[in-house]
């Protein structure tokens, strides 16, 4: 004789797979991988030109916005110990001759990456958190949220590095935003079930299935605080170390991660299903 609890558990396992990935999430991953594959097929000059055109470059964005343009010092003023500054100078001179920055780079930078390791790691994180958020708000709204978090990350980076010509690329800021959005509901007492395991146990007197935690509740939820704390610690280490092999040796724009995370936390209520019911894709 079958135990009713076992039947319910089996039903949950069949209806809610571990990743529960939506078509939108798969499409975003394929877009990132496909763009990077296309870039690798180009010659070095064309690959660099396209990457610079679609990456987010703070000083070029400042020029587009009419905020001003950082002065370009003579290259002779740089020494061998300031390779990064010298490269920044070369980029500045390039953009004076080839202005190309446009407002859509606030979003397009998320689809370009520094190398295969960079794009694959981001695709894995997108699959992990994108599926959870997509189940909550639906595929179309997930795409909107992804773009808004990319914008939030780029603007945070711009606020700190407005005079920098170093290009910023990668989906990490947008994915951090999806993590921030998920922190509003996956750790609540009526959180989602993944792989037959509920991320938070049900409790009487708490919000119904699928309801978002308020900011106050999120900041009082021990599981949510642990998640945010670990995420902040990781970004602090990234900021201190300055670079990571996960980005193929390039610098990590950790400020953009913070901006994207905050954007996700604040934006998801605008896109949430008000009834608190799962949105089927």
> What is the terminal-to-terminal distance?
35 Å
CATH topology: Rhomboid-like fold
The appropriate CATH architecture is: Up-down Bundle
Low-confidence stretches: 7-16, 71-82, 191-209, 243-250, 275-281
CATH class: Mainly Alpha
**Strand residue percentage:** under 5%
Overall number of domains: 1
**Run of helices and strands:** HHHHHHHHHEEHHH
* Mean of all residue-level pLDDT scores: 75
Helix content: 55-70%
CATH superfamily: Rhomboid-like
Largest sheet: 2 strands, antiparallel
As laid out across the biggest beta sheet, the strand order is 1-2
- Helix/strand-derived class? mainly alpha
Shape: globular
Gyration radius over CA: 21 Å
Number of separate helices: 12
Number of E-state strands: 2
What does this structure look like?
There is one protein chain. With 281 residues, the chain is mostly helical. Helices cover 59% and strands 1% of the residues. It contains 12 helices and 2 strands; from the N terminus they run αααααααααββααα. The chain has a two-stranded antiparallel sheet with strand order 1-2. Helix 9 packs across helix 12 (254-271) and helix 11 (222-241) runs antiparallel to helix 12 (254-271). The longest helix has 22 residues, at 116-137. The protein is globular. It starts with a helix and ends in a 10-residue tail after the last helix. The model is unreliable at 7-16, 71-82, 191-209, 243-250 and 275-281 (pLDDT under 50).
């Amino acid at each position: 004789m079958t135990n009713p609890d076992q039947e319910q558990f089996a039903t949950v396992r069949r209806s809610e797979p571990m990743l529960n990935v939506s078509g939108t999430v798969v499409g975003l991953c394929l877009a990132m991988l496909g763009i990077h594959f296309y870039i690798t097929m180009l010659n070095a000059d064309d690959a660099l030109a396209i990457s610079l055109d679609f990456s987010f470059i703070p000083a070029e964005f400042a020029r587009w916005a009419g905020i001003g343009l950082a002065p370009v010092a003579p290259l002779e003023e740089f020494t061998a110990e300031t390779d990064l500054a010298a490269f920044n100078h070369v980029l500045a001179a390039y953009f004076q001759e080839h202005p190309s920055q446009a407002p859509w780079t606030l979003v397009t930078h998320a689809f370009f990456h520094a190398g295969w390791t960079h794009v694959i790691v981001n695709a894995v994180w997108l699959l992990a958190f994108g599926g959870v958020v997509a189940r909550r708000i639906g595929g179309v709204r997930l795409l909107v949220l992804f773009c808004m978090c990319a914008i939030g990350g780029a603007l945070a980076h711009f606020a700190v590095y407005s005079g920098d010509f170093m290009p910023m690329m990668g989906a990490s800021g947008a994915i951090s935003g999806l993590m921030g959005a998920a922190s509003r509901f996956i750790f609540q007492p009526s959180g989602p079930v993944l792989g037959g395991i509920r991320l938070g146990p049900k409790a009487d007197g708490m919000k119904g299935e699928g309801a978002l935690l308020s900011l106050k509740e999120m900041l009082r939820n021990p599981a949510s605080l642990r998640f945010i704390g670990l995420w902040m610690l990781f970004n602090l280490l990234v900021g201190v170390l300055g670079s990571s092999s996960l980005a193929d040796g390039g610098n990590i724009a950790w400020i953009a991660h913070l901006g994207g995370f905050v954007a996700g936390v604040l934006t998801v209520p605008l896109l949430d299903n008000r009834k608190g019911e799962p949105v089927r894709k």
